[in-house]
C-alpha cells in the first residue's frame, strides 16, 4: 500500500483547522462589542458601584452615630463633674422708707440718683473725685441697697463730711474716704481705700455696724467695723440722729444736719 503526499490537501486542512479555532474567539469578540452586551455590563458595574457607595454611606453614618454617642457621654460626664453653682447673695429684708421724715438709717431710697447728682452740682460743679460723680452715686446705690442702708441719705452724709467733695481738711481725694473713717483731727488722715467703690463700701458697712448686728453681705473692708460691733454688742442705733456724739464729736446736731441736706436733695 502506497501513501502519496498531496500538498494541496495538507494546506487545505491547515486552513480549515485555523478557521475552526478562530470561530469561538470571533464570537466572543462579537459578544463583547455587542451594544446590548455592553449595556448589561455597564448596568452591572453601575449597580456594583451604587452598592459600594451605600456601604460607604452606611459606614460613615455608623461612625457619626458612634461619635454622637461619645459626645453625649462626654456631656454627661461633664455635667456630673460640673462644679456646683455659687449660692446667690443672701436676700436682705429691707424696711421700706415711706416719707422724708423717716429718720431710720436702714431703709430704701426716696431720692433718685439724678436728684443726688443735681444737688451736688448745684453746690459744687467741679467735685474733686477719682471717678465721675455719676459713678460715685451709682456705687452708693449699689452698696447701700445691697446692705439695706439708705443710699441717698448716706450720700448726703458724704457731702457733709467732704464739704461737697471740696475737701480742704485732713482727708485728700486720693484716699477715697468719703465719711472721715479714722480721722481724728490734727493732721491724722485716716483710712485709705484702693478704689472709689471700696471707699463707698466701707462707708456703708460702717453705718451697718451701728445700725444692725447682721454681718455685711460683702467681705468687710471697713477698718473700724469690728471695733464698733465689739463695743455695741447686741445694741444698735436706729436713726441718723443717734449718730450724734458717736460718729462726730461733739456732734450735737450731726444727724439733724444730714437729714436737712437730704430733704434739700429731694427738691432737685
Structure description:
- With 268 residues, this protein is mainly alpha-helical.
- The protein folds into 2 domains: 21-80; 113-265, Lysozyme, CATH 1.10.530.
- It has helices at residues 7-33, 35-80, 113-123, 133-147, 151-162, 196-211, 225-232, 254-265.
- Helix 5 crosses helix 8 (254-265) and helix 6 runs parallel beside helix 7.
- It starts with 6 loop residues before the first helix and ends with a helix.
- Residues 18-39 have low confidence and may be disordered.
In short:
By secondary structure, the chain is mainly α. It has helices at residues 7-33, 35-80, 113-123, 133-147, 151-162, 196-211, 225-232, 254-265. The protein is globular, with a radius of gyration of 48 Å.
Span from first to last CA? Answer: 154 Å
Largest sheet: none
Number of strands: 0
Query: Per DSSP, what share of the residues sits in E-state strands of 2 or more residues?
Result: under 5%
Order of helices and strands: HHHHHHHH
What CATH architecture of the largest domain would you give? Orthogonal Bundle
Write down the CATH class of the largest domain.
Answer: Mainly Alpha
Mean pLDDT over all positions:
81
Q: Structural class per helix/strand content?
A: mainly alpha
What is the name of the CATH topology of the largest domain? Answer: Lysozyme
Shape: globular
- Give the domain tally: 2
How much helicity do the residues have?
40-55%
